[in-house]
Amino acid sequence: YMKDSNNEYYAIKNVGSPDKITSINDGLFCGFTYLETIDLSNDVTYIGNNAFERCSNLKQITIPENVSYIGKCAFSWCSSLESIEIPNGVSKILFSTFICCLSLKNVVLPNSITAINNSAFSGCKSLISIEIPNSVTYIGDYAFSGCDKLQNINIPNSLDHIGVSPFGDCGSLMYNEYDNANYLGNESNPFLLLISAMDTNISDCEINTNTKFIHDYAFSNCTALSSINIPNKVTVIQDYTFNNCSSLPEITLLDGITCIGEAAFAECVSLTNIVIPKGVANIEYEAFMGCKSL
Q1: Could you tell me the sign of the dihedral formed by the alpha carbons of 92, 95, 98, 102, in that order?
Q2: Residue 179 confidence (pLDDT)
């Protein structure tokens, strides 16, 4: 809203930015709920934090090719936004940049992107597929959580970090299956990320040798699980991965493991033996809580 000559508020629906404007500053259009279209000049290189947050009627915006920075929450809760193309030159999708863009169906990410940070696309309930470039090395906590229509996503081999529940509550994902487990990956390695057990009633699982990541809660409450292997490419046991696997008597952690997450083996009441590798730097809160047989 803006004030007119009579000091009364009126709604802004259409905006054009003049040449030589290089920055859309933090919060500049935040809460402009009537804004439907905006034409940004090619001189714009910077879109600040919360710049278009809660522009709930904004359906489409073309981000100029010279933009190299898009801030945190820049388009959060733009619930009518249907498509977005990130220009080549932007290196990170920051915290909650597109959180709860409920109508967002089409996203194009360039090869300049190296990180998709925490909650970047969380709650984008119309998103069906997305191609993650091979340049991405980092996917943060809850990055795509709650994208309940998301069916197809590729996980590139370039990835070296994955956060907590990046695909939590993504109930429509189409998985690759291997020996009692569901996976996401890519054409050359369809088993890069183990998401979950196929069923909580499984008694054993041979994790694919090409698996590099195991999603948190992957085997949580698999109370009949008595045998499982951890491939040598896996470096982190995520939070609650084996929580309440009450029939698991032992597990071998290989030397590549560096972190054991929160409640990772909590309530594994049959676990009698586990060797912590020398390379483990962090054992998080309640990692072995309730392991009465250790």
Answers
A1: positive
A2: 96
- Residue 64 has, within 13 A of its CA and on its CB side, a CA count of 22
pLDDT in tens, 114-146: 999 999 999 999 999 999 999 999 999 999 999
Distance CA 26, CA 30 (A): 8
For residue 6, give every residue at least 6 positions away whose Cβ sits within 8 Å of its Cβ, in sequence order, or none: none
How long, in residues, is the chain? Answer: 294
Q: Measured between alpha carbons, how far is 243 from 229 in angstroms, rounded to an integer? A: 16
> pLDDT under 70 in the chain at which residues?
1-12, 17-18
Closest by CA to 127, choosing from 166, 109, 153, is: 153
Cα-based angle 124, 128, 129 (whole degrees, multiple of 5): 110
Residues contacting 274, CB < 8 A, separation 6+: 250, 251, 253, 265, 288, 294
Residue 150 and residue 250: Cα distance in Å, rounded? 36
